[in-house]
Each structure stands twice: as structure tokens, then as C-alpha cells.
Prior knowledge:
- By secondary structure, this protein is α/β, with parallel strands linked by helices.
- It has 3 domains: 83 residues, no CATH class; 139 residues, Alpha-Beta Horseshoe (Leucine-rich repeat, LRR (right-handed beta-alpha superhelix)); 121 residues, Leucine-rich repeat, LRR (right-handed beta-alpha superhelix), CATH 3.80.10.
- The strands form 4 sheets. A 13-stranded parallel beta sheet has the order 1-2-3-4-5-6-8-10-12-14-16-18-20. Strands 15-17-19 form a 3-stranded parallel beta sheet, with no helix packed on it. It has a two-stranded parallel ribbon with strand order 7-9.
- The longest helix has 51 residues.
- It is elongated, with a radius of gyration of 34 Å.
Amino acid sequence: MTGSISTLLPGNVTHRNPTQESASGVKHPLLSLPTELLEYITQYVMKGDTQEQAIANVIRWRQVSIASYQATHASCIAGVINQMEQKKRQEYQEHLDEALITLWQKEIDDYLPRSVRQHLVSNVPYTATSAKIRQQDAARIRQWMLDRKCANTLSHITKLDLSFSKLKAIPPEIALLRNLRILKLENNQITQIDPQILANCTALKELSLCGNWITHLDPYTFANCAILKTLSLSDNRITHIDFRTFVGCTALETLFLISNQIVKIGPHTFAPCPSLKELYLHGNKLTQIGPLALAGCPSLWSLNLDQNQITHIYPRAFAGCPALSYLTCDSNQLTQIGAETFAGCLALRTLRLCFNQISQIDPKAFTDRHCPSLRELVLYNNQIGQIAPYTFASCFALENLSLTHNPNLQIGPYTFAGCSALKTLHLRDNPNMQIDLEALADCPALQWLYLDDT
Length: 454
């Protein structure tokens, strides 16, 4: 036998030039082996080995075997990964093409010149056989939109609604609509928001992405949306919000994050939104409200935390919301109201804590330093037992109090002392309730008393 191992490799390559590739353009895995191992393999193939030499070189053979396996295995894995990445890129590009065609069909068709429109054949439903045709159409539309001469034409589009369009990606061409003020992408299959797409949407005032498959929000996603007022991200799969996500949203007033899978609100998450007035977080998986979770929200007046799994609210958790007027935390797992839970809520008018497991109310929970403006307190469907005397003594503005369905409720003679403005008192469905009638003597303005099933 003559020659070398190079004759066994495709493309007639040699082991002395490891960068050389085969005729197919793929580097052979064996060329990744060390030079000395390739020389040893060549010698063995050419000359053979005696039994004694084979036994003496068993360790070396193992090295050859291991190195060969690693080289070939790594090559195969790399090839598979590369194919997967190519397929993923191809699929994503198809999603972008589909999104662009949808954008054209719903909004841009009237603006396209006849010279472009007459070549488009995307009016047929999408199928595997028409993918290439639709790709060509997308390329034509994209080329037209990128033409600087079309900028004035596109500037006329101020509202765009692509809801219920089965989109899997946001069309990047939206960035070319410089005067876009309202963008609705509801009930699609979008999994991520590309910050670069929104970077040029500086005129955007309302953005809705409800009912998609979004799992996370990147930092600075809305950094250039300086005049955005309403943002809706409800009914997605968001689990975490980075404290930099809303940086730049200085004009944001209303934020919907309903029915996601958010488990925690980190410190200063909404601090970049000084104009935020309404925040909706119900239907998530929150377990607690930390001391700085709502810090830096001077304009927030309405907060909804219903239907979470909240077991604990840290003292002064709402102190960073001096304008907070309406707070609801129904259907959670709270067990008590602490002395400092609502400290600093000087503007709070309505507080709802229904369908929890509250059994204790600290006597200092509602002092004049905490909730002097409280007008409505709703605590039905809890496990409240005895309420300490003078618990509501500083609630001079309280008009409506509901303690319905607290089966073991006990009301002593001074429970409502100080409630001079109380007009409506709900004590329904408390079968084991014990009440001292003198307690009502402290309520001169009382007009409606409900004692059904008590």
C-alpha cells in the first residue's frame, strides 16, 4: 500500500493543511486532529502494526479514538445547529414577510402606485407552494417603502390596526411610519417586541399588544416612545419586568398588564413613568408587594392588584404613590392588615380587600397619618374576628364600610368610635356575629344598616 491518509479524505486534502476544505466546501472532521495523531494513523494504515506494537501503543490508540470521536461528533453537532439556525432564520423571515403583506393588504394598498400593485399576486391565501411568490411580493413592497420618495406618502398613515391577523412578528416596516399615533396588534401570535422597530415611532401615543405570546420585555424597549400615553400588554405570558423596560416613557398614563404570569415587581420598576395614573396588574402570580415596588409613582391614582397570590404587603409599600386614590386587592391571600401597610396613603379614598383571609386588623392601620381621606372600605369575605376599639377612630371621612361575610365578627362598644360621617354599614351574612348596639351610637350620620342573614 502506498500513499498517505490524505488519499482517504474527500477532495484529496492533506493533513498538513488543516484550513484546506474539500470540494464540497466542508472541512473534513479528521483535519481537526493533532498532526502527530494523523501521522500515526497514516503510518499504521501504510505499514501495519505488530501485535506487540499494538499492545504497547494501546494508550495512544485510546487518545486517537477519543480525539476522533470528539472531532467528528463536534462537527456533526455544529452542522445540526447550523441547519437549525438557518431554518429558524428562514422561518422568522417568512413571518416578517407575512406581517409586511398583511400591513400592505390592510393599510398600504391604497397608497401603492399601480406600477407596484400590478405585479403583486399575494391576493391568494398563504400556502406552502405560494411562499416563494409571497416572498417576492414582500420584497417589492419593502423596496417601495424604503424609497425616500415614498416617505411623504407613508406619513399620511397615523393609525394602524393589525389585530386578529395571525402575525408571528411585528413588521419592521412599521418603523417607516413616522407619524403613526395609534398601533394595535391585538390577538396575534407575536412572541417578542424588537426595540429597534419602535425606535423610530416617536409619534406613538397608543400601543396595544394584548392577546399575544410575549414572554419577556427587553430593557429600553420603549425608550423612544416619549409621548406614549396608553400601553396595553394584557393576556400575554410575561413573567418578569426589568426595571429598565419603561425607561423613556415619561408621558405614559395608563398601563395594562392584566392576565400575565408576573411573579414579582422589582424596586423602582415604574419609576421611569412619572406621569403614570392607572396601573392594572390583576390576574398575575404576584406573591408580595415589596417596599420599593411602586416607588417613584407620584401621579398614580388607581391600582388594581386583584386575583394574584399576594400573602404579604410590606410596610409603606404605597408610600411612593402620594396621589393613590383607588386601591383594590381582592381575591388574594392576605391574612392581616399591618400598622404601616397603608402608611402615607393620604389621598386614598377607596380600599377593597375582599376575598382574602384577613383575620386581624392592627388598631393603628387607619390612623389619621395613614388614610385620612378614606371614604369606602370594603372587607367582605374574610375571616375577621374581633375588631379592637377605636380602630376606625381617625376615619372621619369614611362613608361606606362593608364587613359582610366574616362569620365570627365581633363588634364592641367603641368599634366605630369616630366614624361621624359613616352613612352605610354592611354586616350581612355573619351568622355568629356578636355586636354591642352601643357601637352604633357613634355613627350619627348612619342611614343604611344591612343585617341580612345575621
